Amino acid sequence: MAAPTSFNTTKPTxxxxxxxxxxNLPCPIPYEEMHREALMSLKPEVFEGMRFDFTxxxxxxxxxxxxxxxxxxxxxxxxxxxxxxxxAHYEFGANYLDPKLMLLGRVLTDGRVNARVKCDLSDNLxxxxxxxxxxxxxxxxxxxxxDYKGKDYRSQFQLGNGAxxxxxxxxxVTPNLSLGGEVFWAGQHRKSGVGYAxxxxxxxxxxxxxVASTGIVALxxxxxxxxxxxxxxxFMYNYMSRDVTASFGxxxxxxxCRLRGKIDSNGCVTSxxxxxxxxxxxxxxxxxxxxxxxxxxxxxxxxVGE
Amino acid sequence: MASKGVSLKVKGKSxxxxxKGSSSSSSSDEKSMCKAxxxxxxxxxxxxxxIAHYGFIPLVIIIxxxxxxxxxxxxxxxPV
Lengths: 306, 80
Prior knowledge:
Subcellular location (chain A): Mitochondrion outer membrane
Largest sheet of chain A: 19 strands, mixed, barrel
CATH superfamily of chain A: Porin
Helix content of chain A: under 10%
Main location (chain A): mitochondrion
Largest sheet of chain B: none
Largest interface: A-B, 22 and 17 residues
Radius of gyration of chain B: 31 Å
Number of helices of chain A: 1
Distance between the termini of chain B: 100 Å
GO molecular function, one term (chain A): protein transmembrane transporter activity
CATH topology of chain A: Porin
Number of helices of chain B: 2
Family (chain A): Belongs to the Tom40 family.
Number of strands of chain B: 0
Distance between the termini of chain A: 60 Å
Structural class of chain A: mainly beta
Structural class of chain B: mainly alpha
Membrane topology (chain A): Multi-pass membrane protein
Oligomer: heterodimer
Number of strands of chain A: 19
Strand content of chain B: under 5%
Radius of gyration of chain A: 23 Å
């Protein structure tokens, strides 16, 4: 009788660090998405009122969406009081999603059109356009981006209406660290600016920092505590206007729901819950309590469809 | 001497203005061409904005209805 072969041969317990191949670095995250983990955890789309979204898929690639919103909308006011006006609108949207072409269009009852186009001109060159069009003259905005993706770098050139030009570049320096910079020039306001950003990410954490000549210093840190829980914190300082904001939040991604909450240094507590009641049926609860301004916003909504 | 200087200066000025006059006509040509270009591009952008405003969503719908598998009109209009 043959002796049973032992399966677990003793492996060396010391992990040998792989030598970093600096010519084979991964492609970095796009410059504008650098803060995306912190943004997803700390800035959910809180709303006030009732929201109902219905997305109807007609095709693999084509879908129509109908969305109803009823609730108070804040209008910017000079005084410290917040002025809210009750509004209700219906939004119709059409989405076309192809691997090479994405078209997203939304039209509201007051005639505003929101259009987004993303087109892969070649393997590495992507054209993106984003436009908000209104019937009022001089109130429409449009922004066109050309993205070029290299082996371990990305560069982007932006054109906007009102003679807005921008360019940014981000490069992977080590497998975990990427550094980037941007310049922009706004013709209408005669302003220009330079900014630098850095992002360090591992499996468990992401830390980003951004400095701009417009006076903004923004730092963020996201730690993935487990598969379901991540904690995020964010610090923003404007050295021109001496404005400081720090926030700390959590993000629980559970089987049936996603719960996000944050607390701010402006005395603002936010919470956002998306619960999956059934396949394709989501229930949303949103709450934002601003203790300093005494502004309490509660919203609920239902999302039907993918 | 002074008068000579003055006269020279005047001559210099007149010749300079003469040359400026000729160059100004060419520069005014250029300026009017630039102006015309700007006017045409403004007109083009305004028309493009109106076309995008009214035509983007119909364009998305047309592209969607012509994609494979071809959906029918009833699928577009029915709420189910």
